[in-house]
Automatic annotation (TrEMBL):
A Pfam family this chain is assigned to: HTH_18
Organism: Pedobacter ginsenosidimutans
SMART domains linked: HTH_ARAC (SM00342)
The name this protein goes by in its record: HTH araC/xylS-type domain-containing protein
Keywords, in A-Z order: DNA-binding, Transcription, Transcription regulation
Domain HTH araC/xylS-type, residue spans: 229-326
Source superkingdom: Bacteria
InterPro entries: Homeodomain-like_sf, HTH_AraC, HTH_AraC-typ_CS, PchR_regulatory_protein, Tscrpt_reg_AraC-type_HTH
Gene Ontology molecular function terms on file: DNA-binding transcription factor activity; sequence-specific DNA binding
Length: 326
């Protein structure tokens, strides 16, 4: 398959790669970085490819309107992840940009040409995984009910998506993407690591698609999303002593019901689970990196009683905090 993309009226390609369709487990990875500065577009690309796989991470800034032209020759399955922020609200590559408006989907694309209009004064982070049919079918369970319609359309050569509308990205997906683009391994270790993280990322996508189907297709209101982002920022800052739902709803000017349901739909996690994850990840870091004792760790992540911390840690990780160093 051949995958390529460029900005309309620009001579340089964002990427243009010919990828062998056959999945070869021990084939080496090829990496490259490309920077394009040609007003009104500024783009920084990291690309990785091997048999059956093409991956690109793009940081893009548009000072004026632009159109992205894409083309796929041959069958491909794409996992697309898009983050966007208004210029000035964050810097591409920094945490604020990564946690801006986000969406994702899985698509099957037979040979096709498409065009996407992008708005000016917007920063985009675009993470794209392109898999050959052979590669994808080795990763997923074709007989899962969730896959049935997708595979049927794919076998007919009909362009299709897992979700009718793109879904919001979860924190787990963001962490998997971050792990892929910051991996410091090389050679065989990097290939194994990349394969594992891609499988993990697709698993998170399929998990959310399944929840979306079971929970209905109600969409969030655009005006509520900045408030949910604000709620996340507050919880990340104050997770040691987080506000109650009632307090948080007043802080972001959103009623409690919309806060609870919207937070879970947008971030793929309840508020309680989100705070628990932040506490447990920090607890593990304090144990491994700072060597703090269990009492200090519990206090530092917001637990008043040692037993409560120990129980919460074991429930989250499946082991006692004292066993982490073993």
């Amino acid at each position: 398959m051949i995958v390529k993309a460029r900005i309309e009226h620009q001579k340089d390609f964002l990427f243009m790669e010919e990828i062998p369709d056959k999945y070869v487990p021990d084939h080496r990875l090829s990496e490259k970085s490309i920077t394009i500065k040609d007003a009104p577009v500024g783009i920084k690309n990291y690309q990785l490819s091997t048999n059956g796989l093409f991956l690109v991470h793009s940081e893009m800034k548009f000072d004026g309107p632009a159109r992205i032209l894409t083309e796929v020759e041959g069958e491909a399955i794409t996992c697309q992840f898009i983050f966007s922020n208004k210029n000035g609200s964050g810097t591409a590559g920094k945490q604020s940009a990564k946690y801006g408006r986000s969406r994702h989907n899985i698509r099957y694309i037979p040979s096709a040409k498409e065009a996407y209009d992008v708005k000016p004064d917007v920063e985009f982070i675009y993470f794209l995984i392109v898999l050959s049919k052979d590669y994808y079918l080795r990763l997923v369970d074709l007989y899962s009910p969730l896959h049935e319609q997708f595979v049927q359309e794919m076998e007919k050569g009909i362009s299709t998506s897992f979700a009718e509308h793109d879904l919001f990205m979860t924190p787990e997906m963001r962490r998997s993407i971050e792990a892929i683009i910051t991996c410091r391994q090389d050679g065989e270790l990097k290939r194994l690591f990349t394969d594992a993280r891609i499988t993990e990322l697709i698993m998170y996508q399929l998990e959310q698609f399944s929840q979306h189907i079971q929970g209905g297709r109600e969409s969030l209101l655009d005006r509520d999303i900045p408030k949910l982002e604000e709620a996340r920022e507050i919880l990340e800052r104050d997770y040691i002593d987080p506000p109650t739902h009632k307090q948080l709803s007043k802080m972001i000017l959103l009623n409690e019901f919309k806060l609870r349901t919207g937070f879970k739909k947008y971030f793929g996690s309840t508020i309680y689970d989100f705070v628990t994850r932040l506490r447990m990840e920090e607890a593990k870091r304090l144990i491994l990196e700072e060597g703090k004792n269990m009492y200090e760790v519990g206090v530092n992540v917001g637990f008043k009683h040692q037993a409560s911390f120990t129980n919460a840690f074991k429930k989250y990780y499946g082991i006692l905090p004292s066993d982490v160093r073993l």
